Amino acid sequence: MKTNHPPFFKHFGDAHFIKMDGQGVHVDLSTLDSSTQFCDFIERVVTAGYYLNEIDYPAFLELISRYAPEILATRASVSLQKIGVVRFAGSIQLFPPERSALYRNPFLADESAEYLFEPVMMEKTISVPIYEKLEDGTENAIGLEEKVVQVKTTLNFDEFVAAMWLKGIRFGIDEAAVRSAIADGRFARIAVAHALPATPGTNADLQEIGSKLHRDDAPLKLPNGAIDLRHFGNRFPQVKAGERLMQKIPCTPGQPGISLMARPTLPPPPEDFDLAPLAGDGTAIVKTTKDEFLVANIDGFLNVDAASNRISVTEKIINYSGVSLRTTGDIALKGEHFEEHGEVQEKRVVKGKNITVMADVFGEVESQGGTIQLKQNLVGGAASNIDGDIHIAGLTSNATVIAKKGRIVLSRAENAVIVGQAVEIDIAANCCILAESISINSALSCMIGATQIRIGHVGSRRNTPTMLSIVLPDLASASARIAEMRLRSTEITSDIAALRTQYDALIADADVRNYLIVAGKIQRKELTLNDAQKDNLVKVKQRITPTLASATNINQQIQVLIAEQNQLVHRASVLRQQSTQAMNTVSCQIDQSAGEVHLRKLRASVGILFELSTRDLRQLLGDPGLPDDRLSVSGEPFIWRPA
């Protein structure tokens, strides 16, 4: 671009980026360092008594603000390209002092400025004729004199920009409002300039992924659409290993604003945080090229610590609110451990594995395995473990305790039904107890059935005797099965003898017998034949083939029968051994007895007794039995084993 700077341009200092021609005043963006450099140029122009004529104010605003270093340092700079030439005025004109004096000081407020517009007058010097009065009464002009008068004038937007610059307002003039007020020519106080406020950035945030972080205490909706009022939707959130739980949303910087002085105003720095302190046990931080996630390391249950905000995933669920219709509803868990610190209220059910309750239980606790540990009392409820043990530290009263494949350990039991593989109780009163083995320190007025019974002290109270049933193995069933095996073995012996007779008859033929002898020696490499002997042997084999096939078939039948007979002998031996071992485990020991105690032999399988209802079990164990099955408890200690 060809540049033609006027002589006064030298007063403006270094302005190599300014280009002037017949089309106006331009800025070559490729040579402009920043908006600061342009502002310095404008400052020199207006302080030298000049203004921008025919100003393109939007372009002017961009030049004094858009290329500020603070803005170029932000992400917005990606869209800024300092290329090309920008026209911002038609020319640079002298701003006479008398015109500059027409502009009042603005009223400055917070980030804005107001201006009082009013009609303006300007002094003007004019030549006025001097008249002399003649004798005839006429006037004759004898000369001129200069006189200063006030004449009406108007403001000018281009001058207004320069005047406000000198008064500290360099950015944000409302061009439309100012031009309208100037054209109106009346008194008016209006806002003429506004600063551009800084745009705050966004703070770093934590975003949940999915809805599993929150408990859902709404009633559980079943697959068929029905509502289960006993269960909550998702009381204990469960997650899988590798599942994303939280995502960190990174902070973004704000955009600088521009003050009335055309100076950048920086936004407050956005708040950031480190995701690592939020990662508790069972979680990890995973970073990708763009995002940062908190993920679960293991399958388990989600736990958010309200005090530290740490998020952890544990195999154990810990609940402090108790189990009630209001707090949790019935609970059915798939985790390996559940620890409850509150009460389990009446009619509420807790299902899971490895269940520990620190407070009293009035409802039902059902475990699929592991151990049930009740640290306080079980009153009026039930505890059952399909494949594990049950330990109750407090009182077990009016309750049912069942662990058919496990061990039951109780401190004190009253009016309880207890069924387990092995039962250990410190004090039991008025209980119905069935197990393979039972060990009780003190039993009063109980109904007890077991293969092995050991009681430290047994007695009765309130005229209710203690009923003891020694469960003997069902040897009759084993004996019947052994007899069936013996009968079948005898039949097999007879069948084998008949088949051997048929076999001997077939091989009695001389050719058959000789062929079998020769073939056996050849197979054992005891004999070698020449070609003629081989041909002769083949002819003999062809002739006796039907007989050989029949003999082979009979021999195979004999071998099958022998294998069956050997298996029967082994099974019968195992049954006899098991019966002997079962009888050897039967015992009853009572260290001390007082009051009414009844002891009898009960021939039954404990496994079958396990399947009885509570009512039938009470009835069976409360029966004194036939006279021949009754035993007298005498002597201390009393020890009985089957003869």
Automatic annotation (TrEMBL):
Residues 150-305 form the Flagellar Assembly Protein A N-terminal region domain. It comes from the Bacteria. Pfam families: FapA_N. InterPro entries: FapA (IPR005646), FapA_N (IPR046866). This is Flagellar Assembly Protein A N-terminal region domain-containing protein. It comes from Paludibacterium purpuratum.
